[in-house]
Each structure stands twice: as structure tokens, then as C-alpha cells.
Amino acid sequence: MTDINSRYGLNPAHSEVIEASKTIQPCDALDMGCGTGRNALFLGQLGFNVVAIDSNPGAIQTLESIVEEEDITNIQAQVYDINEAAIQGDYGLIACTVTLMFLNPSRVDAVITDMQERTLAGGYNLIVCAMSTEAYPCPVNFPFVLKEGQLSKIYKGWELIKYNEELGTMHNGAQLQFATMLARKP
Ligand SMILES: C[S@@+](CC[C@H](N)C(=O)[O-])C[C@H]1O[C@@H](n2cnc3c(N)ncnc32)[C@H](O)[C@@H]1O
């Protein structure tokens, strides 16, 4: 497969998106906080129909120009503020990697409820988000961080195909816990 991401100087897709794509058949997918589209482009190449949303118009413009240049017909990029919690359409996969922590904390519950409601039965949510715990207080001043066990509680009743709250090391050596979840809606 030609690697569009490297051709446009983008990083490879997030490792959890690559991993999830081995489990999930191509379907309608929503990439929340898509940035310049590393995950959307990867999923698009696998045959997913992707709606890619981000509040940064510059990032969306970059993705749109790649889509146009490559004659891609299965990726639609849109400027959208996730805090609105008003997703249009229903999806087999909603991915939100390293984005929840930039949202307005008072909107996160509504955003996740909206994600859950807009997921088709048997569909998937993929979330990767920074945490702050007693053992490892978050060293970065994100507007929002998850607490221990918080995400799995919100997804009670869904099948947790993957769930962990592992410790990672940032470029500057600081240690930070991340919640990683792939969940399937009943
Ligand atoms: C760290 S980047 C992650 C990008 C991508 N999900 C990935 O895995 O590479 C976070 C993205 O969230 C977007 N973002 C932050 N707040 C947002 C909001 N309220 N609505 C939509 N996008 C938002 C930023 O513009 C940025 O592109």
C-alpha cells in the first residue's frame, strides 16, 4: 500500500488505530480531533468511509488538500467543535485518540454520551486519553484528565475489548498514565 502519510510528512497513524483496524471491518468511521488526518488517511486507505472532524480550520484545510490531491472519495473533513456534543450520523467506529484532554471538562460527559449514542449496535469506540492519578499526577496542564477507573465505568455494559491505564514516558522523561480503550457496543 502506498504510504500517503509519509508522502505528506505526516506521522504514521496512532498505534491504537492501527491495532483496532485489525479487529474492525471497514465501516463508517468518525475521527474526532483528526488534526491533519494521520488516522483518517490510514483508515481511508483500508476502505473505511471516514468523517474527520477538528476545531482547527488550518488542520482541516491541510487534510482537505491531501484528499483533493489524492482524489480520495471516502474521507470528508469538517471543522467542528467536539464540545458541542452534537455528532451528525451514526458510525461503526468512533475514534478519539489523544483529544479528550483538550476539551472543556464540563462537556466531556456529554461528549462521551453523544459518542455512545451515535455508535451503531455492534460498533466500536476507541479512546486514548491522559490521566491524573494519586501515584502519577499528570505533569501536563491539560484542561481535562481521566481519573483511575473513570473510563471503564462510563462504558459499563459495553464489551471492553482492550482496556488499560498504563504508564508512559513523555519525550522529556516525565511519566504520565494514559487510559486506552477499545469498546464494543452491545
Ligand atoms: C494531540 S492532537 C491528536 C490528533 C489525532 N487524534 C491523532 O491521534 O494524531 C489533538 C487534536 O484535537 C483537536 N481539538 C482540540 N480541541 C478540540 C475541540 N474542542 N473540537 C475539535 N477538535 C479539537 C486539536 O485541534 C488537535 O488536532
Topology:
Elements: H1 4-7, H2 15-20, E1 28-32, H3 38-45, E2 49-54, H4 57-69, E3 75-79, E4 91-97, H5 108-117, E5 119-130, H6 150-154, E6 159-169, E7 175-184
Parallel strand pairs: 1-2, 1-4, 2-3, 4-5
Antiparallel strand pairs: 5-7, 6-7
Bound molecules: S-adenosylmethionine (SAM).
S-adenosylmethionine (SAM) is lined by residues 14, 33-35, 38-39, 54-56, 59, 81-83, 97-99, 102-103.
Describe this structure in words.
This protein has 186 residues and is of the alpha/beta class. It has six helices and seven strands. The protein has helices spanning 4-7, 15-20, 38-45, 57-69, 108-117, 150-154; strands at 28-32, 49-54, 75-79, 91-97, 119-130, 159-169, 175-184. The chain has a seven-stranded mixed sheet with strand order 3-2-1-4-5-7-6. The model has no long low-confidence stretch (mean pLDDT 96). S-adenosylmethionine is lined by residues 14, 33-35, 38-39, 54-56, 59, 81-83, 97-99, 102-103.
